[in-house]
Amino acid sequence: MSAAMPMWLDALLAALVVLGTAFALVGSWGLAKLGDFLKRLHGPTKSTTLGVGCVLLASIGWFGWQGQWSAHELLITLFLFLTAPVSAHLLIQAAIKLDPRLRPPPAPGEQPQADAAGTGRARPIPTAAAGATSSRHPDAGPGEPPAG
């Protein structure tokens, strides 16, 4: 058993845990209550990441004081801070591909981003009502079987 923890370290670690749980609570509340997909994604990727990071820093401090240094909390923190923004970015890119209306309008004085055809506007999403199906080749005639 090690010596008693100094009051300042105990208060710092307690503050990190309280701050971390407050961030996690706000992030969870944002996920549950905010309206559209982009707003709902913002809560968990920002505040919940900071909340878990604070709790993990408190854990590192606690076990470090006890003399039980371990790389587990540090690796979890590193992995969390690297993967949360990347996964949020990929989810936003996928959402914009599915619904180009989610793309924010260009700022005044900026050129709009061009789509693959270079028209400066988003390509429409093909739907079954427009005649496009996923099982037919685009060059297939009306009587030809699906490609496969």
Describe what this molecule looks like in 3D.
The structure is a single chain. This protein has helices at residues 7-33, 37-65, 72-98. The chain is mainly α and 148 residues long. The chain is built from 3 helices and no strands. Helix 1 runs antiparallel to helix 2 (37-65). The longest helix is centred in the middle third of the chain and has 29 residues, at 37-65.
Low-confidence region ranges: none
Number of helices: 3
Taking the sheet with the most strands, its summary is:
none
Tell me what portion of residues adopts beta-strand conformation.
under 5%
Terminal Cα separation, in Å? Answer: 69 Å
Q: What's the mean pLDDT score?
A: 78
Which series of helices and strands comes N to C?
HHH
**Percent helix among the residues?**
55-70%
The rough form would be described as elongated
Tell me the number of strands.
0
Secondary-structure-derived class = mainly alpha
Radius of gyration: 25 Å
Question: What is this structure, in a nutshell?
Answer:
The chain is 56% helix and 0% strand. The protein is mainly alpha-helical and 148 residues long.
Topology:
Blueprint: H1 7-33, H2 37-65, H3 72-98
Helix pairs in contact: 1-2, 2-3
Give descriptors for this structure.
single chain; 148 residues; mainly alpha; 3 helices; 0% strand; elongated
